[in-house]
Amino acid sequence: MHLGGGYLFGLPVGFVADSIGATIGAASAFLLGRTIGRSFVTSKLKDYPQFQAVAIAIRRSGFKIVLLLRLVPLLPFNMLNYLLSVTPVPFGEYVLASWLGMMPITFALVYAGTTLKDLSDVTHGWHEFSKTRWALIVTGFATSVVLLVCVTRVAKSALEKALAENEDIDSIIASPELPIVANPGADLQQPLMIKIDRPEDDHEK
């Protein structure tokens, strides 16, 4: 999709359109997982044991973790949208972090799409490029790849550090089915039970 956006619309329009589209798609999946698809998502948690550490870290810094997860392919992108829906991260933070975190890969792929369009125009004889134009295309493509790799490495290191900081707080897990949901409040509809120990005989005397 990102390559196609760059190929059809060029870099500025393709980047904006793909960025907005990807964010809307991620937000839609998040809302589905948080509402009617919640049971499906919870049934899939056991298939992604590494997500437990992510869920714990999100309780401390949701925006940061979601941003880093978008930069680092720790989990499948589409499934990540649903898995994050059962975490305590607010919807607004999720959307903003996802939008910012997806920008680097979106830009790189859209730029690659524009490069493919240029190459296609040359091979079909629709345009002729000078050596300077070729140098700019190659340099721009190489630069985008290098920057993407650097950003991914930095994000991976930051994500690993953030997850490692939460390895000692496994006790905050609320339940075996949903380790990422905050403890539910008290049920006010239930009667209040107070246990009183029987006094000792000596105390009675």
Automatic annotation (TrEMBL):
Keywords: Cell membrane, Membrane, Transmembrane, Transmembrane helix. InterPro entries: TMEM64, VTT_dom. The chain crosses the membrane at residues 6-32, 65-84, 96-113, 134-155. PANTHER family: GOLGI APPARATUS MEMBRANE PROTEIN TVP38-RELATED, OS07G0655900 PROTEIN. It comes from the Eukaryota. Its main location: membrane. It is a multi-pass membrane protein. The keyword Ligase does not apply. It comes from Thlaspi arvense. This is VTT domain-containing protein. One of its GO terms (cellular component) is plasma membrane. The keyword Transmembrane helix applies. It is found in: Cell membrane. Residues 4-114 form the VTT domain. Pfam families: VTT_dom.
